Amino acid sequence: MPSFALTVFLDGISYGMILFLISVGLTVTMGLMRIVNLAHGAFAMIGGYVAGYVTQNGGNFYLAAIAAAAAAGVLGGIAEASIYRPLYRKGELAQVLLTIGIAFVTTGAITAIFGAFPYPVLFPDYLTRPIDIGFRDYPAYRLFLIAVGAVIAAVLWLVLDGSIYGARLRAAVDNPRMARAVGIDVNRLFTLTFIIGCGLAGLGGAIGAGVLSLEPDYALKYIVLFLVVVIVGGEGSFGGSFVAAMALGIIDTLGKYFVAEAAPYLLYAAVFVLLLWRPKGLLPPKSAT
Amino acid sequence: MIRRRTGPGLAAIGHALPWAIVIIYFYAAPDHLGFGTQVIIWILFAMSLDLALGYAGILTLGQAGFFGLGAYAAGLFAIDVSPDPLLGHLAAVAIAASFGAVTGAMILHTSGVTLLMLTLAIVSVLSEYANQARSLTGGDDGLQGIKLDPIFGMFEFNIFGKTAYVYAALVLFAWFLVAWRLVRSPFGRSLDGIRQNPRRMRAIGTPVWWRLVAIYTISAAMAGSAGALSAHATRFVGLSVLSLLTSGIVTVALILGGTRRIYGAFLGATIYFVVQDYSAKISPFFWEFVVGGMLILTVLLLDGGLLDLGPAALRLRDRWRGAEKDRE
What is the pTM (predicted TM-score) of this model? Predict the structure, then answer.
């Protein structure tokens, strides 16, 4: 029984790590700039396809993952400067529509280039094999996800908590007007953060392709999941999204083991109840409480 | 609201034109009535969204839930209860409306992103449930085997789709009258106010929450009606009716045409399906690219959809003239 519990736990947090990696950029977009960004899944998808293309053409997996993050980050930067900026002044409806438009366009473009079928990322052999972790064999790929997710979460935590960039970002999320008043260039801060967020999403899309499989529908299919992480955690709350992503991963895995048939809709029903109970999410940033 | 620069004559033409097209299409394109029926159904669907999103400003991506609920209800009613299409339609509308009233009452005290997420959660619950409950809905394969009696025992649903087209057009007209009357009533005006400033409306004594629940329920009934028409016209309900893409498409159709104009839904849904039809012929998935592009341009360039092209041109002309005057 303990080994079973540990398996569920590992499955859950490896899934949760991917959700966190992809969603952490979204929490900044929605928390800092109050943009409802339904196109975020598209950046993860672009990263995934870049990695798929590189590995299928014989490229190294780690180079492919870096290329994925770079491509998604650069495209994110371009999109921010050209399409997103006019949006900051517009209402939520315009934001929803425009970002759905971006998701559509990306889906169409990906289908035109790569076709409508699932597109695999080729992982190195040693990741696809199970390895012995003491009491049983466990897929190395899942452990790899946990390791990468943990390292990135730790780096993010150090940067956000320890660096001047992190202090500025937290200040801007908590109170953008005050942050501007004390001389923080919130717009530049945001562009930089947007690029990093899209890059992380691209990375997540690439290495997480074994969990969230790549297909042109990806951008719209999983965006609800990413939004759930952000909203349940509390917009703009990094710790909140981490907790929410882990909880979501573990709950989903538990659901698959115990109530396989009911799992997906029970998850959304739980989100529904949670949002009615705490509209600002589990751990909202200080400004929102 | 700004008064438009149109006389009564122009307004009459504006009213007559869409309906004339609906009638002319019936005689001009007897081989493509299936397509026409689909457009009419989506006009009704987009009009339902216009009431909630356009007039009342309820930020929702859950409209597909009501459409899907109406479609499954109509389909299951025909299979399990009675093959009478009108009874089935009424049942579907009643179910969609009650679901709208119950969920609306639960969520409409929230706003913005939270409301958006709640609507997404609701439609996700429905679609996951429909996917799992194979014995009820057929799951991935869709709901098949819907058989219908002739309407009033006289007009049979046939492969040429004449009955379905006329039936859909009449239902659309009935709902159009409801919507037209509604948005011009004091109730409709109060929705205008709630969209623009809910706090102030509350301060002057408007029961904001009740009004929102009421319009959300009417909108749900209308969307359910569109769903029922879709189930009856095609005798099939697919799982995709409950997807985020369905909500996305209906929003695109509405926004392309323009919100808060009633006829915006007519223009938008028509353009959407014509473009989808043509671009899908070029390449099966090209339409997503085209539709997404249209959506981005509409949001960035036109505030009020394609029906705003005229006024936008007038504004540009006025600005041009103003600039000339400045130079003189």
Answer: 0.86
Write the Ramachandran bin of B211: left for phi over 0, alpha for psi from -120 to 50, otherwise beta: alpha
**A207 min Cα distance to partner chain B (Å):** 26
Question: Which helix (DSSP H) or strand (DSSP E) does residue A130 occupy?
Answer: strand A130-132
Q: Which domain holds residue B92?
A: 16-327
Chain B interface includes A86 (CB < 8 A): yes
CB A90 within 8 Å of CB A32:
no
pLDDT tens-digit profile of A168-194? 988 888 888 888 899 998 888 888 989
Of A112, A227, A261, the CB nearest to B132: A261
Q: What is the CA radius of gyration of chain A?
A: 19
Residues A90-145 have pLDDT tens digits of 778 888 888 888 998 999 899 888 988 899 999 988 888 888 777 778 889 999 99
Closest CB from A96, A112, A224 relative to B285: A112
Within an 8 Å CB–CB cutoff, is residue A105 touching chain B?
A: yes
Listed by start position, the domains of chain A span 2-118+139-288
Flag whether residue A250 sits within 8 Å of chain B, measured between CB atoms.
no
* Most confident by average pLDDT, A68-82, A90-104, A236-250: A68-82
pLDDT at site B303 = 65
Q: For residue B306, is it within any domain?
A: yes
CB contact under 8 A, B292 and A268: no
Whether residues B255 and A97 touch (CB distance < 8 A) is answered with yes
Let me know if residue B8 belongs to a domain.
no
DSSP annotation of B150 reads P
Give me the interface pTM, i.e. the ipTM.
0.81
Residue A288 has pLDDT above 70, yes or no: no
What CATH number is attached to the domain comprising B224?
1.10.3470
Residues of B in contact with A83 (CB under 8 A): 296, 300
Q: Would you say A68 and A52 are in contact if contact means Cβ atoms under 8 Å apart?
A: no
* Interchain contact, B128 vs A108, CB within 8 Å: no
